[in-house]
Amino acid sequence: SSDLTSGQVKAVAISGCQNSPCSLPTGKKIAFTFTFVPKTVEPKLTLRFNAVIHGFPVSWKKFDACKLGVACPTIPGKSYDLKMDITVPSIAPHMSLLANIIVEGSSKSDKVA
């Protein structure tokens, strides 16, 4: 959403995905870039991937966003590009799901983007 109280998502880019929804290949690296603008100074950021599978929320992975191209502490109003490669496990079943990408600040209640 671009209307967050604590930051603004500018862009999400996934290699090989021009339109939503898209299919992600299993067993291959996928380049992912998430561009956001925080409204607060954050000394630490966590990137979380969650999915909704058949109506049930599933937490997938957490990453230290300060090690993925974001200079921490963040500067309010400055644009940041968080970049990483993701590999969908080759044993993952083929299914449709909704993925959520969340950037959290030092307090888990502070959603930066």
Brief account:
This protein is mostly beta strands and 113 residues long. The chain has strands at 7-14, 29-38, 46-53, 56-64, 80-87, 98-104. The protein is globular, with a radius of gyration of 14 Å.
Write the layout of secondary structure elements.
Layout: E1 7-14, E2 29-38, E3 46-53, E4 56-64, E5 80-87, E6 98-104
Antiparallel strand pairs: 1-2, 2-5, 3-4, 3-6
Characterization of this structure:
The structure is a single chain. Mean pLDDT is 82; it is low at 1-5. The strands form two sheets. A three-stranded antiparallel sheet has the order 1-2-5, with no helix packed on it. β3 and β4 (56-64) form a beta hairpin. It is built from no helices and six strands. The radius of gyration is 14 Å and the shape is globular. The protein is an all-beta fold and 113 residues long.
